[in-house]
Design brief:
three-stranded parallel β-sheet; single chain; about 270 residues; alpha/beta
Length: about 270
């Protein structure tokens, strides 16, 4: 089965920066994180190897990977990644506290460039996704017919600010904007499922939290039944082993909905179907 992995960050240029924890096997955070979650550390992470990353993608038939980033990875790096490796489609990023910069990035890298969406992340700040400063970004992306990814859950400063009800407000305000909730609203799992069920423009991507995390059973229920058309597969590599993640999904997702989860739902958002 061909797979679209909607959350995969490869060992390429800015992603190797030491402050990102992403590709440093000797970092205590990395070893502890993989051990706690029961994930085998991928060889490509150990060796910080792009070639091994591509081989691991081939092993589980990942045809296309969508790559987003946090601050610290430049949009020029994301552009170069997509140009050098056509199996990667990249999502722009910006500082949510700088709206004008964000609008400039949209015009340069999305409207008139190769990047396919915008990653919006408020987790580093004491604001929500319904903050007025972000609304011009949503409006412009809606005008362009492009999607945004909104990351919830781990990494936020307070639990209160991660509530998916703020995303629901965005979805109602911009009904023609496709919204992908990275981490699928974890730990507010059932609430996020309600939003995806109620708002045609909202999709869930459990990514890391599909595998072994508290609440992952609810995500599997959503994928297998009620929300089978609204959930997107992502491995969250390098925070998970992409081979382990794909095999986990194929083991626990019903065969009759695997095609939707692993490929078709993402392909529809990307305009491939």
């Amino acid at each position: 089965m061909k797979i679209i992995d909607f959350r995969l960050r490869p060992p390429f240029k800015d992603f190797l920066n030491e402050d990102m924890h992403l590709f440093r096997e000797d970092d205590p955070f990395v070893t502890r994180f993989f051990k706690q979650n029961g994930f085998p550390i991928p060889e490509s992470l150990k060796q910080q190897s792009m070639d091994l990353c591509l081989k691991e993608m081939e092993e589980v038939n990942i045809e296309l990977a969508v790559c987003g980033a946090r601050l610290g990875v430049s949009n020029d790096t994301l552009t170069e990644l997509g140009e050098k490796y056509p199996q990667f489609k990249c999502v722009a990023t910006y500082d949510v506290m700088n709206t004008e910069e964000g609008l400039d990035i949209i015009d340069k890298y999305i409207a008139n460039g190769p990047l396919i969406g915008m990653a919006v992340e408020t987790l580093l700040y004491d604001i929500t996704y319904a903050d007025d400063r972000i609304f011009p970004i949503y409006e412009r992306m809606q005008e362009l017919g492009k999607f945004v990814t909104l990351t919830t859950g781990a990494g936020g400063n307070t639990l209160e600010l991660t509530k998916p009800e703020y995303i629901d407000k965005v979805a109602r305000t911009f009904p023609n904007l496709n919204i992908i909730i990275s981490h699928a609203g974890w730990p507010w799992v059932e609430q996020a499922c309600w939003i995806a069920a109620s708002r045609p423009n909202v999709y869930l991507m459990p990514d890391l939290y599909l595998c072994n995390a508290p609440g992952h059973q609810s995500f599997l229920s959503a994928v297998n039944y009620q929300l089978q058309d609204k959930v997107i597969y992502g491995s969250a590599y390098p925070y998970n082993n992409m081979v382990y993640a794909a095999k986990f999904a194929l083991k626990y997702v019903r065969p009759e909905v695997q095609q939707k989860f692993m490929y078709d739902n993402a392909a529809r958002i990307l305009g491939l179907k």
